[in-house]
Predict the 3D structure of the following.
Amino acid sequence: MRHLMSPLDFTVEELDNLFDLANDIENNMSKYAHVCDGKKLATCFYEPSTRTRLSFESAMLSLGGSVIGFSDAGSSSASKGESVSDTIRVISCFADICAMRHPKEGAPMVAASKSSIPVINAGDGGHQHPTQTLTDLLTIRSLKGNLRDFTIGLCGDLKFGRTVHSLIHALIRYPGIRFIFISPEELKVPDYITDMLKEKHIPYEEVIRLEEIMPRLDFLYMTRVQRERFFNEEDYVRLKDFYILNKEKMKLAKQDMLILHPLPRVNEISVEVDDDPRAAYFKQVQYGVYVRMALILTLLGIKTKI
Ligand code: CP
């Protein structure tokens, strides 16, 4: 039995197979309509979500399976003091696979250690968000054709943004990737990440102004300032609108630069940018469904011919 805690749980070759399967699903949805008949997915979300939870549910329903779960810790027995370990033992009696989001870093890992069904980390605190990373990689691979030789700018809350941490870990396994980190001083990418990049001789720069590096980017990965991880509201209010991508700034970008965002967006991308053909963040959401369908099949060990 296999779980997914980090994007590194899959080798690059296994990821290629997963993305091939996701692209086949994209092009042949009806072929997969009954491959999970009789299977159940449990979504155990102790933190709010729109995309991750509903795309998992949409994925399982599109595969012919069904879905149970909770979307709020307050409506589960966690509110009565039940541990994650006990909850997953119980969920293992009800479902074939579980996607779990939790505010505590490592909670899905604790669940996996006690589970008799595959557990997927659907986001744990400020730590990792592996299925968002699978979504991001599939989007880049599908829109660019490969996962090598590009400069990606990661902009916004690089301190608390778990999607950023997961994506950096995943991208360093591909050749020719250059990172530019764009953030205010207070929201810089953690030292353990820059130390890792130095150790692996992977090129990166840290800048504060988006405008100065915009013309060099192949991808711009915007992120929201993570209000829920701030210790005080004052700091959040001061930093929340530090970056706002608008039409004016987009004039500085390459004609084929693509904008990604894990969403939800608050103010960091002006809605006027949505009609720009380089805005790929809603396509990214759709790729999230295909890759989660492929992931469910892979973790359940359901083989299909591509
Ligand atoms: N990208 C993402 O994790 O979105 P949700 O919080 O809506 O699931």
Observations:
- Residues 47 and 79 are 13 Å apart (CA to CA).
